[in-house]
Amino acid sequence: MEGQDIKGHEDLLAAARLVLDQQPDVRFLVVGDGFDEAGARHFRDIRRLAGELGIQDAVIFAGRRRDLVDVLASMDVSVQCSLSENYGGTIESLLMERPTVATRVGGMPEVVIDEQTGLLVPARDPEALAAAILRLVDDPELGRRLGRKGRVRVLERHTIQHTIDHASIVCWMVWRSSTRTRPFGEPTAELGIIDEPQNGCRERLRIPGRHQQPCLLVDHHSGIPRPGWPPSASPSGATRWSRRSSRSGSTAQRRP
Questions:
Q1: Average pLDDT score over the chain
Q2: Is the pTM value of this prediction over 0.85?
Q3: Which of 8, 127, 130, 175 pairs as cysteine with 18 (C-beta 3.0–4.6 A)?
Q4: Phi and psi for 242 in degrees, rounded to 5?
Q5: What is the pLDDT of residues 99-134, one digit of tens each?
């Protein structure tokens, strides 16, 4: 990626030139700015490139904005053309039901499913990028359909709660594996059995000495791990637990 910005601004401007050749009324909005002097120099360079391409009047450099919800709502198409990326702005764009064009890099294809929740193109391919933008400009109904499906996918798979739930499952799986493989007498955690009538019997992952910290609950009925809180501690900070040993390690049971 040497000599080229990681966000693919040069590719966007090259694609913009191609789009404007067919749709001269389209306008492009570049939101954000660079970090430190290198970032400021980069934005001076891409402004100069816009002039060299003859598209300076069709590209608006908006700088850093705090009203991103309003900015996204004003767009007809969101473009994320990075050369390397996690999710970029794809989650925010699809939450706003903006039809999105993204490069097939990093985590973006997990959010933008080609022809289902958006359009994917190869990185460093201004021609493909321009063609995808023109499809959405020329077919607003396609854009609305992709945007609606994109919002549904983000709400189902990419919320903070979804991340917490899956991180909890990973922690639970790692813990179960560690307690099964550790030799007898070297438990890595304590397993508490708590009878809560309103929720059924649950397993609880406890870290000794941290009774007030969040921990992992596993509902015996569903088998699904969920984050939770330890039982109330006494004023001294100690919870009443009794311990028994087994070949797989130690377990702890709360006294009534």
A1: 77
A2: no
A3: 130
A4: -110, 150
A5: 999 999 999 999 999 999 999 999 999 999 999 999
**Same domain (yes/no): 179, 100:** no
Assess if residue 3 is contained within a domain.
Answer: no
* Same domain, yes or no: 235 and 152: no
Question: What is the rounded distance in angstroms from the CA atom of residue 19 to the CA atom of residue 51?
Answer: 16
Amino acid present at 234? S
Nearest to 125 by CA among 83, 188, 172, 153: 83
Same domain, residue pair 31 and 149: yes
* Token duo for residue 85: 């990326």
Cα–Cα distance list, 39 to 4, 6, 13, 67, 185 (Å): 12, 11, 17, 22, 55
* Residue 49 pLDDT: 98
Do 150 and 174 lie in a common domain?
A: no
Q: What is the pLDDT of residue 169?
A: 81
pLDDT at 179: 61
Residue-range definition of the domain harbouring residue 169: 161-254
In a domain, 1, yes or no: no
**Sign of the C-alpha dihedral computed for residues 172, 178, 181 and 183 taken in this order:** negative
DSSP per-residue codes, 63-113: ES-S-HHHHHHT-S-EEE--SS-SSTTHHHHHHTT--EEEES-TTHHHHS-
Give the end of a domain, one of 115, 141, 158. Answer: 158
